[in-house]
């Protein structure tokens, strides 16, 4: 019974679509995060004077809002993934479960 259920799920076109969409989207978001994060780290490593440039006459430098932007970007792409997972991915998962239990 267990093997039959597993094989039915693996053959389900909705499962294949879910696996493909989720994996592709996850890799895209991971790549975007890597570009943003490592871009910031490369700035820290190779252009400290730029990051140390003061904004106005206070103590805030360009590096501070850029660092905050990296954190905000992380929260935003997490929200995008959760929104998609709670919509499209959950719908496909429900369809797979219903088809498997028939």
Structural overview:
This protein is mainly alpha-helical. It has helices spanning 2-11, 13-46, 48-51, 63-100. Helices cover 84% and strands 0% of the residues. The chain is built from four helices and no strands.
Shape: elongated
Task: Please work out how many helical segments DSSP would assign.
Answer: 4
Per DSSP E runs of 2 or more residues, the count of β-strands stands at 0
Oligomer: single chain
SS-derived structural category: mainly alpha
**How do the helices and strands follow one another from N- to C-terminus?**
HHHH
Termini separation comes to 13 Å
Mean pLDDT: 92
> Main β-sheet, in a few words?
none
Strand content: under 5%
Taking pLDDT < 50 over at least 5 consecutive residues as the criterion, the unreliable ranges are none
Helical percent range?
over 70%
Rg from Cα? 22 Å
Features of the shown structure:
mainly alpha, 102 residues
Tell me briefly what this model is:
By secondary structure, this protein is mainly α. The chain is built from 4 helices and no strands.
